[in-house]
Specification:
The complex is a heterotrimer. Chain B is mainly alpha-helical. Chain B is built from eleven helices and two strands, in the order H-H-H-H-E-E-H-H-H-H-H-H-H. Chain B is globular and about 60 Å long. In chain C, the strands form three sheets. Chain C has a two-stranded antiparallel sheet with strand order 1-6. In chain C, helix 2 packs across helix 12. The mean pLDDT of chain C is 89. Classes of the chains: A alpha/beta, B mainly alpha, C mainly alpha.
Chain lengths: 384, 291, 335
């Protein structure tokens, strides 16, 4: 409660400051709506996302806001429940009457809100991964994370470059793992590869030794790929090390955070995954356009919240910045103008990658925006 | 082939032993007060999270464990004293909802105090896996099964040899009669909740190095414990142990030989089948219903 | 006596109708209609569940499973196979009724916690199937649902309608439709309660053995009410699916079953108007508590716990008793 009051007070101060500096009279705030899974099983997504939004809304307001108007963040916690996400989206659209929505930590939460948001003609930037969100293209829906299809493609590319064609696939039965599994199975054929073992685990499982034993005993497996998020991939990695499986091991972008390394101990050596360059800002060459953005985000986040950055907060950073960019480009918060501006964003450098939106691509990222990282001596190392 | 089977068997026994301990906690409370305590899983969470947090403060591991178990015990007593005892005339469902409320409350507090992240707990002994008959075992599995067995023996001794244990048994059989012979039943109930919390927190601690621990780890494990208890027959100690091990082994075997997609479904179907043929679970006692 | 009782029942229904009609006076925006519609749908669901829990005294921890089957049956059949919503909904209800009858016969022989355990297992199996059969149900990420339509007349919360020259939005139409369904649900439930079936059920709740001794086929009546409450859940699940436009397996989950039973117990078991109050409170709380951010979960648990400790009979009966007591005291003072 007091936090809310503080936020309100901060917002008032920002409004005041903005009106003094720009000379605008009673600039009406731009309302950024958001529903995120700040608690519940997907809190590792929603928590850094909310912290990022709060951090950048504060900073943008301190710098005078957007088109002379301060930002106001209206946020609700859906606790990972898609029905709650739908209800909060309804509240944002119909009661709070926000100007744009940046949120939706999981694919389920995003998709549950989509019919309502489409009907209400509200620009919406989702922070969730699955490819169904922007394929087929929905007029009002955009997203910042690379799709799981891109992640599967990137991992398989890397395997292929190491001469691997036969893959053992293990995936979670949650939304993220399911969709990732489907994309991987669809992609292997195109790449001339093969999934020879295909096992799953439920997100509440506490031991995946049985599933991994099955993969180990499948003849011909040359590498293992795990698609899942939460704590499960860490358990999989540990069980993998305990079983002494000697094959190259890949994880998905769903676990790309420093926190994940802490969970692994030394069980993660040699593990590879696709990720945004956020985890390895120092290894980026100076010529890399993302270096400045990534370094600045990491520094600001860690200073403000005193905790490690994760890729997921980066999605929120890009979502908010794309929204701001679009509103500035449109020169107003007129929804259709903002939507058009979002669609026309080209070469925008974000934490996750370089966005090139179009009317047929509401994600704007290619598979190349993923970097392959490897765990070496307990640290992330950039492979390519 | 055989090595595979052994692997699944051991995996199942490890997780089954955890379920058994949780189920024993359910049984203890059920026997003494006829309450199904849906906050049982939170004792596991408290055990694991408090240990990790005390270790993080720089305390040595054994001290942290003792403190965490004591904390859980105190919370168990508070749960009985402040949530269950005041509502003693309430319906069974009402009591269930109270324990659900308590579990949400405890989880909410834990999330504030300890945050939402997953935490690691070190193995008690070596991180090196152990090879048995071609199967690879986590050394922590032995701790889980070993400590589980010790706790079971300790419980048996407690109930058969000590006055306090016998008082709990007497209260569970007939509360009014127990009061007549001078047993302070309210004390006994508090004691049962405390014991159950101790059991739960120890289970939470020994299993944490395998599963990691977080503020919401108790939801699923608690539920599995309830399932194990019902499978074995509510109120039966032997049933809780057999139910827990059976559930764990069936889960591991299904995940290994069939598919993990329907692993939980197989476990739940098993319960339905058992209940169809043995309406009181495997070892449930035939109590005469009072009219 | 009987006449008196009937009058009282009718009075309750009229009061509820008046509330449904007048409530929009307090609504400021479409979101309020949106929320009220959901409350009505869930209230109707728990009015059905209450027949099982409150009157027959049987605890179901898997009722969201039936809600989920109704929702998904409607979603899949209207979406993928192009059926029309209203008949689909009725077919779904028949399917659920058969399912409940099949499962119910053996399950309802069980006593107390074993019954809860069996319903829990059944609910879990339904949720797992919905979750796993992604080709049909969209898997854990859910699936979209077509808008509801009655005889070709489409009901979508985003359309505009006009009736007798009055223009109104689809959210308003949905609200009155859901409110009407709730009134029908209450009317049917009250009739069941007063029928011989209802009396048999109450005897089961009082003492099953005594009921059996005097010749009540308890198992038959229990199965019957189990089926009725499952049909309530299925119909409302279908309605909810069409209303919300998108559904996920969470609707059929164990947590959802807990939410439903909590609505019954919190509002007041065996009181039709009590469980409606329970639905109102449980649906409004998350919206009210949303401002408390991190404290939300803790406060929700605390409120739930305290309410049940201090009002073990539920909100409505406790308030009713308080009122009655005050009235009695007043009349005593006057006398």
């Amino acid at each position: 409660m007091s936090k809310k009051i503080l936020r309100r007070a901060g917002f008032l101060a920002a409004t005041l400051a903005a009106s003094i500096f720009t000379g605008a009279q009673a600039a009406e705030p731009i309302k950024i709506g958001s529903f995120l899974s700040v608690t519940g099983p997907a809190s590792f997504l929603g928590d850094p996302e909310l912290k990022t939004l709060e951090l950048y809304v504060e900073r943008i307001n301190a710098a005078g806001g957007v088109i002379g108007r301060p930002l106001e963040l209206v946020h609700y916690d859906d606790a990972g429940d898609a029905s709650a996400a739908r209800n909060f989206a309804s509240r944002l659209v119909r009661s709070d009457r926000v100007d744009i929505i940046v949120g939706g930590s999981t694919t389920g939460a995003t998709m549950a809100a989509v019919p309502l948001i489409e009907q209400a003609r509200m620009p919406f930037i989702s922070l969730a991964g699955a490819v169904v969100i922007t394929d087929p293209v929905k007029k009002w829906v955009f997203k910042t994370p690379q799709s799981d299809r891109a992640a599967a493609e990137r991992v398989l590319q890397d395997m292929k470059s190491r001469g691997i064609t036969k893959v053992g696939l293990i995936s979670g039965t949650g939304g993220f793992g399911r969709s990732g599994r489907e994309q991987t199975l669809a992609m292997v054929g195109k790449m001339g590869m093969e999934v020879v073992a295909d096992v799953t685990y439920s997100p509440s499982d506490t031991d995946m030794t049985a599933q991994l034993t099955r993969i180990r005993n499948t003849p011909g497996v040359e590498a293992v790929f795990n698609f899942g998020f939460g704590q499960s991939p860490a358990i999989v990695t540990r069980n993998y090390a305990q079983l002494g499986i000697d094959l190259p091991f890949y994880q998905s972008h769903g676990v790309a955070s420093d926190r994940f390394l802490d969970l692994l101990g030394d069980a993660g050596e040699g593990l590879r995954l696709p990720a945004s360059p956020l985890l390895v800002p120092d290894s980026l060459p100076n010529s890399d356009p993302q270096k400045a953005v990534v370094t600045s985000y990491k520094k600001l986040y860690e200073e403000r919240w005193n905790m490690q950055v994760s890729t997921f907060g980066g999605y929120a950073h890009d979502g908010l910045m794309l929204a701001v960019e679009a509103i500035e480009k449109a020169g107003s918060t007129d929804r259709e103008a903002v939507r058009k501006a979002l669609e026309s964003i080209q070469g925008y450098v974000g934490v996750t990658g370089v966005f090139n939106m179009s009317s047929t691509d509401h994600n704007g990222l290619s598979a190349d925006s993923f970097r392959i990282l490897e765990v070496k001596n307990g640290k992330w190392k950039l492979i390519n | 082939m055989f090595a595979e089977f052994i692997q699944y068997l051991f995996t199942g026994i490890t997780i089954g032993a955890t379920y058994a301990l949780i189920a024993l906690g359910f049984t203890l409370i059920y026997n003494s007060s006829h309450v199904i305590n849906f906050a049982q899983g939170e004792f596991l969470m408290i055990g694991g999270m408090a240990t990790v947090s005390f270790v993080g403060m720089g305390l040595p591991m054994p001290v942290s464990i003792v403190l965490a178990v004591l904390l859980a015990g105190v919370i168990g007593i508070c749960l009985q004293r402040f949530a269950i005892a005041p509502a003693k005339k309430a319906d069974v469902v009402t009591l269930i909802i109270i324990t659900i409320g308590a579990s949400i409350f405890i989880r909410g507090v834990a999330q504030l105090v300890w945050g939402k992240q997953y935490h690691v707990m070190q193995n008690f002994s070596t991180d090196e896996p152990i090879l048995v008959l071609g199967a690879v075992l986590n050394s922590q599995s032995f701790w889980v099964v070993g400590i589980g067995a010790i706790l079971v023996v300790a419980l048996v001794l407690f109930f058969s040899r000590t006055m306090t244990g016998k008082a709990i048994l007497a209260t569970s059989m007939n509360k009014d009669a127990a009061r007549l012979v001078g047993i302070r039943t309210q004390m006994v109930l508090m004691l049962a909740f405390m014991l159950s919390a101790l059991l739960g927190s120890i289970a939470g601690i020994i299993v944490a190095p395998i599963t990691f621990t977080s503020y919401d780890i108790g939801i699923m494990l608690g539920l599995k414990g309830f399932v194990a208890a019902a499978l074995g027959g509510l109120g039966s100690g032997v049933g809780a142990i057999v139910g827990g091990l059976m559930l764990g082994i069936v889960e591991a075997m299904t995940a290994g030989y069939i598919s993990s997609d329907y692993k939980d479904a197989v476990a739940f179907s098993m319960i339905l089948i058992v209940l169809f043929f043995m309406p009181r679970g495997l070892f449930g006692s035939r109590v005469v219903e009072r009219v | 006596m009987l006449k008196n009782f009937l009058q009282m029942r009718l009075k309750g229904l009229v009061v509820l109708a008046v509330i449904v009609l007048l409530l929009p006076l307090f609504f400021n925006n479409p979101f309020h209609y949106d929320l009220a519609t959901q409350i009505a749908i869930f209230a109707a669901t728990v009015v059905g569940l209450n027949l099982l829990v409150g009157f027959a005294g049987q605890i179901s921890l898997g009722h969201a499973g039936f809600f989920g089957v109704g929702a998904y049956f409607s979603a899949v059949m209207t979406g993928t196979y192009g059926w029309t919503p209203l008949p689909t909904m009725l077919v779904a209800a028949v399917v659920v009724a058969l399912l409940a009858w099949l499962v119910g016969r053996p399950i309802l022989k069980l006593k107390g916690h074993y019954l809860s355990m069996a319903t829990l297992a059944m609910g879990f199996i339904i949720a797992i199937i919905i979750n796993n059969e992604g080709w049909l149900t969209g898997g854990p990420d859910g699936m979209p649902v077509a808008p509801f339509s009655i005889f070709g007349w489409e009901l979508s919360s985003f359309n505009q309608y006009s009736l007798f020259g009055i223009e109104f939005g689809g959210d308003v139409a949905w609200y009155f439709f859901a409110g009407f369904l709730l009134l029908v649900a209450v009317w049917i439930a009250e009739n069941i309660i007063d029928s011989p079936i209802g009396r048999a059920l109450r005897s089961v709740h009082g003492s099953e053995i005594a009921a059996r001794v005097v010749g009540v086929d308890t198992s038959y009546y229990k199965s019957l009410v189990f089926v009725v409450s499952a049909v309530y859940a299925s119909l409302m699940g279908s309605i909810y699916a069409h209303f919300s436009g998108f559904i996920t397996p969470h609707l059929a989950s164990f947590e959802q079953s807990i939410v439903l039973i909590t609505m019954v117990v919190l509002g007041g078991m065996a009181s039709t108007f009590g469980v409606i109050l329970g639905a109102v409170v449980l649906k409004l709380l998350p919206q009210v508590l949303a401002d408390f951010q991190e404290l939300e979960m803790m406060m929700f648990g605390l409120i739930l716990m305290l309410t049940m400790i201090f009002m073990p009979k539920g909100l409505f009966p406790t308030l009713q008793n308080k009122l009655a007591e005050r009235k009695r005291k007043k009349s005593e003072e006057q006398a």
